[in-house]
Amino acid sequence: MFSLRDKQIAKQVISKIKKMNVNLKFMHVCGTHQDTLVKHGLDALLKDCGIEIIQGPGCPVCVTTPREIEEMLMLAKKGKTVATFGDMIRVPGETQSLQNIRTEGYDVRTIYGIEDAVKIAKENKDKDVVFMAVGFETTTPTTASVLLKNPPSNFSILCCHRTVPNALKAILDMGEVKLNGLIEPGHVSTIIGTKPYEFISKDYDVPQVITGFEPLDLLMSIWMLVKQIKQGNAHVQNEYARAVHKNGNTKAKEAIDEVFESVDMKWRGFSVIPQSGLMLREKFEKYDARKKYENELAELKDKEFVEPKGCKCGELLRGLLYPKDCPLFGKQCKPGSPVGPCMVSIEGSCNIEYRYSKK
Fold first, then answer.
1. Residue in 192, 136, 190 with CA at minimum distance from that of residue 162
2. Beta strands 260-266 and 272-280: pairing type?
3. pLDDT tens digits, residue range 294-308?
4. Burial bucket for residue 86 (CB in 10 Å: 0-12, 13-18, 19+)
5. Residue 2 pLDDT
6. Could you give the CA distance from residue 250 to residue 139 in angstroms, rounded to a whole number?
7. Beta strands in the chain (DSSP E)
8. Residue 156 — φ and ψ, nearest 5°?
């Protein structure tokens, strides 16, 4: 909630933006930012100031592809113990979700982190345990840290980790949406710092601000972007300086670099984005579920996967639509009966819109 002081500052910021008489479109890439915007009505407030804010591919669960969901389903059906976060359990595959097949007796575990999956493997030496490693640079260091500690041989990961900067490059290269500025994610930036975003401003002349998650953080980031534009500048500013440093978290980055290497990767709603994914380096291949269980996954190798019929998650993740533009929103697709991941994840734009519109 806004304190009295924050309200006063917010009014001043809004007043200054209105006086600038702008018509601008910004994109953020963080589900928590979307939650803050909608929860506090900032999206509507900023529209009155000539600022439109859209959500890009900032939800890790949402950008995970149908193929990756089907890989986990296949491993469970082949007798593996599969474990992942609660949101991922509920994301529909082509015909089922991990939650669905759990009711059929397959061993699907909902966990809070990779350490829980390792514990399951240690306590069940007769089981092959596969952890679905999902997330951006925020969660990747945890996966790396666990693998550096030599977990048991019956443990492996299905790596679905992705990295943010090149996804932003892909959006700009596609040119589907005209963006005047980018609001960069605070959590990711605590790990990678400010440097990885610099090429975007340099090569595409797009202003950027890294920001925190309080309402006032977001308002300040908008004001900073507007000022850059009015001054004819395009660079990376750090509104979240209390948590984000230029070089990020050095130890976390070293752990990531030791365990993973960058690869081209498909994102939901996108084609393959160059150097936007991570895979295990050769010395950690014994923990790579795709290689360890190559035979079990063989029938999926050349299969083509499509989005659920009528689902607009792909367009939402590219900033082309708002949730209510999807014909399924609030009808066939609700949090209790989701058609796509944007309604499943608490960081998904559809889930956020549905929750707060009901209030």
1. 136
2. antiparallel
3. 999 999 999 999 888
4. middle
5. 65
6. 15
7. 24-28, 51-55, 81-84, 108-110, 129-135, 155-161, 181-184, 208-210, 236-238, 260-266, 272-280
8. -155, 170
> Looking at the predicted structure, is the pLDDT value of residue 359 above 60?
no
pTM of the model: 0.95
Pairwise CA distance, residues 352 & 342, whole Å: 9
Give the chain's domains with CATH numbers.
61-163+249-300 (3.40.50.11740)
Q: Half-sphere exposure of residue 117, counting CA atoms within 13 Å on the CB side?
A: 32
* Nearest residue to 288 via CA among 161, 160, 156: 156
Beta-ladder partners of 157: 131, 288
CA 150 from centre of chain: 27
Tokens matching residue 151:
């977990």
Q: What is the mean pLDDT of residues 124-148?
A: 98
Q: How far is residue 164's CA from residue 278's CA, in Å, rounded to a whole number?
A: 11
